[in-house]
Amino acid sequence: MNTPLIRRPDGNGASAEAVPAVPAATGATGASDGYLLPATWPGIGAQAAAALGMLTGLWVAVSPWFIILQYAGGNAAAVNLISGLAVAAVGAFALAGPRGFAGLQSGSALLGVWLIIAGPILNHKHPIADSMYWSNSWAGGVLIALAAASLAAIALRWPARR
Q1: Which residues of 60-71 are buried (b: 16+ CB within 10 A; e: fewer)?
Q2: Which member of 5, 47, 80, 84 has the greatest number of CB atoms within 10 A?
Q3: What are phi and psi of 17, to 5 degrees?
C-alpha cells in the first residue's frame, strides 16, 4: 500500500521540511502577482470570448488582403485595418488584466456596430463590394454576440450588491 509523502526527502534520504498540503497561492497558478487565472466557468468563458473577439478583429484587419472590399479607392481597406486593429487591441487588453473588462467589452460591442454600419457609410463616396458587406456584417455580429456573452459571464461572476 502506498502512502503519500508528508515530508520532502533530502538528497541523502532524510526528510528535512514538510510538504504543504495545499500549494501556495503565489507561483502555483503560473500567473503573475496582480492577475490570477480564472477558476470559474464564467471567468473562463469571459476570457474565451475576449480571445475570440481578438481573433475576429485580426480577421477584419487582414481581410482586405483576402477579399475584395471596394472597386475603387482604398478607404475600405484603411477602415478595416484600423477597426480590426482596434478590436484586436480591445481583446488583448481584456485578456491582459481584469480591471475595466466590462468597459472593454462594451467598446468591442460598439466596434461591432461600427463594422455593420461602416459599409453603407463608405458606399456614398466609392462603391463597396458585396464581400465587404458580408464579411464586416458577420464580424460585427460576432463581436456583438461575444461582447454580450462576456458581459453576461461577468454579471454571473459578481453577485448583485444590495
Answers
A1: bbebbeeeebbe
A2: 80
A3: -125, 150
